[in-house]
Amino acid sequence: MAVDDSRAVLPLGACPVPQSRYEHILLGHGSGGQLTAELIGKLFVPGFGGDVLGALEDAATLSLSSGNGVHGPRLAFTTDSFVVRPLFFPGGDIGRLAVHGTVNDLAVAGARPLFLSSAFILEEGLPLDDLRRIVASMRAACAEAGVTLVTGDTKVVDRGKGDGVFITTSGVGLVPEGRSLSIHSARPGDRILVSGTLGDHGIAVMSVREGLEFETVLESDTAPLNGLARTILETCSETRCMRDPTRGGLSSAVNELASASGVGVELEETAIPLRAEVRAACEMLGLDPLYVANEGKLIAVVPPEHADRVLGAMRSHPLGRDSALIGDVVAEHPGMVILRSRVGGRRVVTLLAGEQLPRIC
Length: 361
What we know:
Elements: H1 34-48, H2 51-54, E1 60-65, E2 71-82, E3 88-89, E4 92-93, H3 94-108, E5 112-123, H4 128-145, E6 148-157, E7 165-175, E8 191-194, H5 200-210, H6 226-235, E9 241-243, H7 249-261, E10 264-268, H8 276-285, E11 299-302, H9 307-315, E12 324-330, E13 337-340, E14 346-348
Parallel strand pairs: 5-6, 10-13
Antiparallel strand pairs: 1-2, 2-7, 3-4, 5-7, 8-11, 8-12, 9-11, 10-12, 13-14
Helix pairs in contact: 3-4, 3-6, 6-9
């Protein structure tokens, strides 16, 4: 979720009025970019209120009280919906994606994921064999991540109203005592690391949809990140924050970071890892890989004195072999992300203005 500092303060019981130049929902409102930020910051946050929601972290961190003033365990809680098309793609499917997406939101919040719920909206006419395949995939993904799906719900909608199946998953995890990660915690001088090549998921889905063929098979990067996140935090307990750059890609993640922490971000284009197939597909389709979704990557913001050690630890993990140090947090141009290009120039990296790749997560 992106942060918007222009949120209105409303009297109790007042109905928020969307402050937008649009009167209807567009596909771009689900892109993870500027329109998503506007919808969240100007409608949902003032509409529901509350400091926890307003913090706009990947997962809400909640303290449980024993009732006598003594605080109990801290829990992380998150929810997400998945509407990918096609339902099955190289490297994964909507079920695997649903489990990993929720596990990863808990993991980058510093939590140990424990339990999931899942709600299925099924379209009349969906083949039962497809649903069995999705359920089996979800079960395998839960086992891989070490979580248990404990409750759920099912609804069926008319033929033509549901695009096969939509899945909503929620997750609960335990936050260790003393751990506090936040997108508001970045400081000038911090280093920004990414756990591997960007854009793999979005381009893998697009390759199926558009019939693109590559010399090698390009697969989605969807994967559970709780093990990698644990490795980072065991290496550097002072890690400021982590994010998984899903909708809106790396651009949204670092723009949210810059806005929330009131800092500037400078990225080095030559340091950002990209597969040759992803780069070629983006050039062919006129896409910017910085805006393409990922489902098995994270960014970590760490103090400069720990950056090399954390990078080494990330590269030692199977999901972090292609990790790279891609940029810095700076005091200049707060709230803005600057990319130092491979030809020596500099450009501003803004939030995605519309919908670049629809229905990929």
